[in-house]
Amino acid sequence: MNWRTSIVVLGVVALLAFLVWGLVKKGESSLSLGEPVPVATLQTLPEGGEGSLEDYRGQWVLLNVWASWCGPCKAESPALDRFEKNNRDRITVLGVDTKDLSEDAMKFLREFKIEYPQLRDASGDYTDGKLKTTGVPESFLVDPEGNLVAHYPGPFADEAAIEAFAAPALKDQAGTTGDQQSQGGGSK
Amino acid sequence: MKRLGLLLLLIGALATPGFALAASASDQAPGPQPRASLPEIEDEVMCPVCGTLLGLSHSPAAERERVFIRKLIAQGKTKDEIEDALVAEYGGQVLAMPENRGIDVWAYAIPVIGLVLGLLGVAWAIIAWRRRRPDPEDEQPSEAPSEDEADRLEKDMARFDL
């Protein structure tokens, strides 16, 4: 095989490898259960700070991706807010506003009186690129080690649906809380 | 060699407008800008969720983006100021055309480099082809016909009375 043929063969092989790599990457359509949930440093809402999912390592986190222009996000917000208020000692709800105007996002938070922490992914690089979301809303249940336990694309119908989704966290934390209480009671 | 020089000169002449085009976006003389209009901006920015130009989208996110642009137009902002505000809100991907600085400049440079390399490849192929083509003067005379062929030729000529 002369050098010209070698270059052509190498070029064809490189092109095919590039196409296969593209297909494989495209095939990875969502995060797999058990795999570490990607993290990124994002701006907070209201603006003025930075935060990351990594800041909540050691806690159960329900990461909810939303946007103010999204009707289903509005529909699920009251239930999500109630769930957070009722379970904030067992699980952290972390909102990630995506592809949204900051003014609209703040209006949304005020309208629904949402108090749980919020991050802002203005470009969608984190939500689309790393979390591989396909729309809004989408929710991810993340364990204290930062691994994905459950994924919920779409809006929660009610608080019961959120409790069912977050059941692993609620059960785990119920056991931990119980142990801590019994240990605390024993020491008194 | 002279031909190669001419070809390279031709390639350079063809490639120059490409570079000039790429550079022109950043070299525009600064001056007072005309009042911005929504259709003009819609053709230069993207809808944040649809992957299309804003002008082609009517999604709720696109409508909010339009409201934002209209508000800035009403405030008397120029097109550049509005596009800067959109980048601040949504990130650089909101611009339909990549910015002509930093790594984005490759979006302009790569097609030009590709064109130059392609033209060089064509030139190289033409030169190689011309070199390989045998000179008619150097062509060797064909071998003499074999005995069988000579006999057959004789017979055919006799048959056709030539």
Structure description:
The complex is a heterodimer of chains A (188) and B (162). Chain A is α/β, with parallel strands linked by helices and 188 residues long. Chain A has a single domain, classed as Glutaredoxin (3-Layer(aba) Sandwich), CATH 3.40.30. In chain A, 46% of the residues lie in helices and 18% in strands. Chain A is built from 6 helices and 7 strands; from the N terminus they run H-E-E-E-H-E-H-E-H-E-E-H-H. In chain A, strands 2-1-5-4-3-6-7 form a 7-stranded mixed β-sheet. In chain A, strand 4, helix 3 (102-111) and strand 5 form a beta-alpha-beta unit. The termini of chain A are far apart. Chain B is mainly α and 162 residues long. Among the domains of chain B are: 34-97, no CATH class; 100-131. Helices cover 59% and strands 0% of the residues of chain B. Chain B has helices at residues 2-24, 38-42, 60-74, 79-90, 106-132, 147-159. In chain B, helix 1 (2-24) packs antiparallel against helix 5. The longest helix of chain B has 27 residues, at 106-132. In chain B, 12% of the residues are buried. The model of chain B is unreliable at 20-27 (pLDDT under 50). The chains are: A alpha/beta (188), B mainly alpha (162). The interface between A and B is medium-sized, with 14 and 15 residues.
Radius of gyration of chain B: 32 Å
CATH topological fold name of chain A: Glutaredoxin
Order of helices and strands of chain B: HHHHHH
Strand count, sense and barrel status of the largest sheet of chain B are:
none
Average pLDDT of chain A works out at: 89
Cα-to-Cα separation, first versus last residue of chain B: 51 Å
Mean pLDDT of chain B, to the nearest integer, reads 80
String of helices and strands of chain A = HEEEHEHEHEEHH
Query: In percent, how much strand structure appears in the residues of chain A?
Result: 15-25%
Helical segment count of chain A? 6
Strand-residue proportion of chain B: under 5%
Shape category of chain B = rod-shaped
Helix content, binned percent of chain A: 40-55%
The name of the CATH superfamily of chain A reads: Glutaredoxin
**Molecular shape of chain A:** elongated
> Which structural class best describes the helix and strand composition of chain A?
alpha/beta
Total helical segments of chain B: 6
The CATH architecture assignment of chain A turns out to be 3-Layer(aba) Sandwich
